[in-house]
């Protein structure tokens, strides 16, 4: 190992080098440069001066981790969470919130220029979250029989507690669970449920399920809460039905300070690592909670998809609505509509909304949500958007005046981009959870005469590098 000067050309794996961190890039990694080589540095903040260890060296780039912080960036803040750095949840908690917003905007701008080829695009300031902590309405924790101990916990935890953890997965260590007693992304009541649950099962020596041997019982604890309604759901997934234990657990959950409105016990013996159950038994309440989004109330069951940041989702949809410049005569298509949240958000302001989505269960939820909210001017269709767009005549739906599209991370299929491009609608709104793919799609839409008017990044997930955008496009004469 040798200490190199920053412009040493022949950087090698194992070298230690001094670096000035320039910016924060995709996936939250920081970027520094040395002799023209890009170096991704984990655990840094733009503005830091660090001594870094090169652990990967490729032709085009290298990867490093911070060995020593020489001069801290003025944008560093003390992370609020004691699990920061080990838990993979909040990679940016050590960066001032204003800087997080800044780098998210830069990331969007960069994607649209570099990938979309849209040089003169206008990207507004990132819309911040009013409450950058406690914003999630859902947290999913796992039980594990191999607890990951922090350095200060080594030797302090007894054997039984070591074999039982309830918390979050350690990144890249899927068999290891980090014991979490306070997660700052969820409410204090949800943290109280988390800790009471751990104490309850540990005291009864009920074993955690092992993802290695597939033995054991307890698998997941999902806590959901309606941020507007205050209703709270506990969904506990295990492999066995231990009725007596669950009755006791339900009794414990009725402690007033936990504020539990419904408790569902889910049972599954599948090997999958997601919190889905084959059988569900409701012990408290009716198995659902309600959440309000805009003017509508949604019923959420343990398996329903729902935006995880209620308050920012409302602002995201509000921006989408503004960008669509809706009039009472408009027919709107809501592509990739999920459970219909956008369609129902705007339905009262337009003539008709057609929502299209691949997942049949989501469409069932969308129809029920429309009915529950007394909305009658929506049509929900289960279809792959590629088929819907390709065989439009076969679906008896009115032509759109406006299209709103909210695809998954992969963006839109090229055939969908082409069909939207040829649709002739004047107003097009693209809601995106991935700037790289929306930039690519908007670059293609330019060829059909759609210009990006402006883009507003919306911070749905403070302390992570994820960013949503509302992209407003208009049809011009030129193709
Ligand atoms: N607009 C919704 C959900 C957006 S998430 C909301 O705001 O809540 C993207 C949705 O696209 C998911 O529900 C997913 O099931 C759906 N989807 C993914 N690929 C699809 C395809 N090829 N055709 C139709 N829907 C698709």
Cofactors and ligands present? Answer: S-adenosyl-L-homocysteine
SS-derived structural category: alpha/beta
- The amount of beta strand, in percent, is 25-35%
CATH topology of the largest domain: Rossmann fold
CATH superfamily (homologous) name of the largest domain: Vaccinia Virus protein VP39
Strand order of the largest sheet: 9-11-10-8-12-13-14-15
Overall 3D form: globular
Low-pLDDT segments: none
Can you tell me the CATH class of the largest domain? Alpha Beta
Number of strands: 24
Ends distance: 57 Å
Largest sheet: 8 strands, mixed
Key traits:
binds S-adenosyl-L-homocysteine; Rossmann fold; 10 helices; globular; alpha/beta; 3 domains; 479 residues; 7-stranded mixed β-sheet; single chain; OB fold (Dihydrolipoamide Acetyltransferase, E2P)
Give a structural overview.
This protein is an alpha/beta fold and 479 residues long. It folds into 3 domains: 3-71, Nucleic acid-binding proteins (OB fold (Dihydrolipoamide Acetyltransferase, E2P)), CATH 2.40.50.140; 102-131 and 308-475, 3-Layer(aba) Sandwich (Rossmann fold), CATH 3.40.50.150; 138-295, OB fold (Dihydrolipoamide Acetyltransferase, E2P) (Beta Barrel), CATH 2.40.50.1070. 23% of the residues lie in helices and 30% in strands. The protein is built from 10 helices and 24 strands. The chain has helices spanning 97-114, 159-162, 188-203, 243-253, 310-324, 341-346, 360-372, 385-390, 414-422, 435-446; strands spanning 3-4, 16-20, 23-24, 30-34, 37-42, 49-57, 61-71, 138-144, 147-148, 165-170, 173-179, 218-225, 232-238, 262-267, 279-284, 289-293, 296-300, 331-335, 352-357, 378-382, 402-405, 427-432, 450-458, 468-475. It has an 8-stranded mixed β-sheet, covered by helices on one side. A 7-stranded mixed β-sheet has the order 1-2-6-7-5-4-3, with no helix packed on it. Strands 20-19-18-21-22-24-23 form a 7-stranded mixed β-sheet, sandwiched between helices. Strand 19 (352-357), helix 7 (360-372) and strand 20 (378-382) form a beta-alpha-beta unit. Helix 1 runs parallel beside helix 10 (435-446). The mean pLDDT is 93. Bound molecules: S-adenosyl-L-homocysteine. S-adenosyl-L-homocysteine binds at residues 307, 336-338, 341-342, 357-359, 362, 384-386, 406-408.
